[in-house]
Amino acid sequence: MSVLDKQDTEPQDPVPRTAHQAPDGPAAGTGDESSPRRRRSGRSRLPLLLNAVSIALGIGLWWVLAASGFKLPTPPEVVARAGTLLGDGTLEGDVVASLTRVLIGFALGTAVAVPVGFLMGWYTVLRGLIEPWIQFFRTIPPLAIIPLAVVVMGIDETPKIFVIFLAAFLACVISTFQGVVNVDRTMINAARVLGAGDLVIFARVVVPASTPFILVGMRVGLGSAWATLVAAELIAAQQGLGYRMQNAQLYYDLPTIFVGLISIGILGLLMDRVLLLAEHKLTGWQERR
Q1: Cα separations (Å) of 248 from 96, 205, 258, 285?
Q2: Predicted local confidence at residue 26, as pLDDT
Q3: CA within 20 to 30 Å of 123's CA: 59, 96, 215, 232, which one?
Q4: What pLDDT shows up at residue 56?
Q5: Nearest-CA neighbor of 113 among 165, 152, 53?
Q6: Is the pLDDT of residue 120 over 80?
Q7: Residue 27: helix, strand or coil by DSSP?
Q8: Contact 168, 224 (CB under 8 A)
Q9: Taking Cα atoms as reference points, which of 24, 72, 49, 70 lies closest to residue 255?
């Protein structure tokens, strides 16, 4: 007996159901169907709530320490100094100068690190040639390169950007390299069995599988770039958050130092969140907790 024959022999329901009512459950559009959405919405709001609580607790602890006699400016003093620096355009100019240096150095470092990391991971010969130099320079802090950079490149923007570039490059290249060498060999062998060549395997298997490692390396490299910024602006800078903080140190101007620290932290956090959003968009296939 076919499925259609079975349907003809089944007894008919004496009470007709409405178009909006399920056979054995509540009507469509009730709260039961929307509860998963509410749960997801609640889970998405929880991290934001915890972040807000953490920031409030941090500011409260800072205020308590300042009121307890520690040599720290209070939050109102820092806010007042930030307003003064914004009013005369000083803070805006410093932010633009520092952000420009970090963005250029980070972008160049990442643009060079990703292909170098792929080449190291894909070709054994290039790995043997390049990896010793990468490991050698990783043991040298980028700040130690500053005297050499000044002598070779002068005191304009070039050495500042170069030091930031080096910090971002060394962090990102190792992560990219690890991403390539950690690609599951089973996927590569399966692609070869299906007739894929090296170029197709590289583009369709290696690059997607390495993307999470690359983005993690970019986030680490971004942190290294901002960490190197203050020292890079020692090189005859006339503007910049690092320059402003070091200049304030000479006059024991703690509020200005705090304005610089908070500005760097906020800018770095915003840029990191952009990379984190890109990571979620590009690696949506990954299982996450």
Answers
A1: 19, 52, 10, 48
A2: 47
A3: 215
A4: 92
A5: 165
A6: yes
A7: strand
A8: yes
A9: 72
